[in-house]
Specification:
Largest sheet: 7 strands, antiparallel
Structural class: alpha/beta
Protein name: 2Fe-2S iron-sulfur cluster binding domain-containing protein
Radius of gyration: 20 Å
Number of helices: 5
Helix content: 10-25%
InterPro entries: 2Fe-2S_ferredoxin-like_sf, 2Fe-2S_ferredoxin-type, 2Fe2S_fd_BS, Beta-grasp_dom_sf, FAD-bd_FR_type, FNR_nucleotide-bd, MRET, Riboflavin_synthase-like_b-brl
Number of domains: 3
Order of helices and strands: EEEEEHEEEHEHEEHEEEHEEEEE
Shape: globular
Distance between the termini: 13 Å
CATH topology of the largest domain: Rossmann fold
GO molecular function: 2 iron, 2 sulfur cluster binding; metal ion binding; oxidoreductase activity
CATH architecture of the largest domain: 3-Layer(aba) Sandwich
CATH class of the largest domain: Alpha Beta
CATH superfamily of the largest domain: Nucleotide-binding domain of ferredoxin-NADP reductase (FNR) module
Keywords: 2Fe-2S, Flavoprotein, Iron, Iron-sulfur, Metal-binding, Oxidoreductase
């Protein structure tokens, strides 16, 4: 899970999608293509010193002359979206990470149902582009409160795959979902995703795909202390009862890259070896967890844990 170097881009265009959500188009100044990406991918954006956030790519993956991200101004958030809205304008320079995908499309036959609410539509837009290009059967269901809250309204209503789109307004009634889905991809608030998942309770787990923009609350401080063994540096660090693993690392001068601090984006994932980590992230698969741990929300259920740091 090594990471490529940042890519230097500038804001080629910025425009409003809704009263609270803007879209930024990012490109290289020399016009060279950006690294390819697959639908569902995100990039980490260095907004300001010490402010780095992950945002889904919503542009067409078939075109790498630019990326687009859509971000809601969260007044009560951690400050990333506020900084982006206030500081990053047309012609601003930015550093972004290479695309990473934790929410990828499958290539199996059958109907792909994309269900998103509000800004949760952003990764599904890229998915719809890809499914349309491949000729796969899909339906995109956009759930918003009212017409002015609909992201990319002209694309959804008049674009090349508009006949695969259903817009559902919460002000007008209940959400209706197709029953013949082969795979379901869902993104939005937790309560919304739980309701959609309940509708598809008979669907095999491997056919349900979701992406969180924020994680459910977790407790990462354990009732007992434990020791961290850092295999690369040979250091040993004590984690006190009730202390977060990542805080113990930082207090002892170990630099830890984090973006979301909620176990969603995968920026703080490192390898682990001996011990029993307590995984509370939402970015790793069960297979990934056999070798990796997300530092920002992990705990430990053994006396010691070896990290590849």
């Amino acid at each position: 899970m090594s990471k490529a170097a940042d890519v230097q881009v500038f804001v080629q265009h910025r425009y409003a999608l809704t009263p609270a959500i803007d879209c930024w188009r990012l490109a290289r100044r020399d016009g060279a293509p950006l690294p390819p990406f697959s639908a569902g991918a995100h990039v980490e954006v260095q907004i300001a010193p010490g402010v780095r956030r992950a945002y889904s790519l919503c542009s067409d993956p078939a075109h790498t002359g630019f990326y687009e991200i859509a971000v809601k101004h969260e007044v009560d958030g951690r400050g990333g979206s506020r900084a982006l809205h206030q500081l990053v304008h047309i012609n601003s320079d930015l550093s972004i990470g290479a695309p990473r995908n934790l929410f990828a499309l499958t290539h199996e036959p059958g109907l792909h149902v994309l269900v998103g609410a509000g800004v949760g539509l952003t990764p599904l837009i890229a998915m719809a582009h890809s499914l349309h290009h491949s000729g796969a059967a899909f339906q995109l269901i956009a759930r918003v409160r009212q017409r002015e809250d609909l992201l990319f309204a002209p694309l959804l209503e008049q674009g090349p795959w508009h006949d695969c789109v259903t817009v559902s307004y919460s002000s007008q009634g209940a959400l209706e979902l197709p029953d013949n889905a082969a795979h379901v991809y869902c993104c939005g608030p937790d309560g919304f995703m739980q309701a959609v998942k309940a509708h598809y309770s008979a669907l095999p787990d491997a056919h349900w795909h979701q992406e969180h923009f924020s994680a459910s609350a977790v407790s990462t401080g354990g009732e007992h202390g434990y020791r961290l063994l850092l295999s690369a540096s040979g250091r040993e660090i004590e984690v006190a009862a009730g202390q977060r693993l990542i805080d113990a690392l930082r207090v002892n001068g170990v630099a830890c890259e984090t973006v979301c601090e909620q176990g969603v984006c995968g920026s703080c994932v490192v390898g682990w070896q001996d011990g029993r980590p307590r995984h509370q992230d939402e970015c790793l698969t069960d297979e990934d967890r056999q070798s990796y741990v997300a530092l920002c929300c992990a705990g430990c259920d053994s006396d010691s844990l070896t990290l590849e740091l």
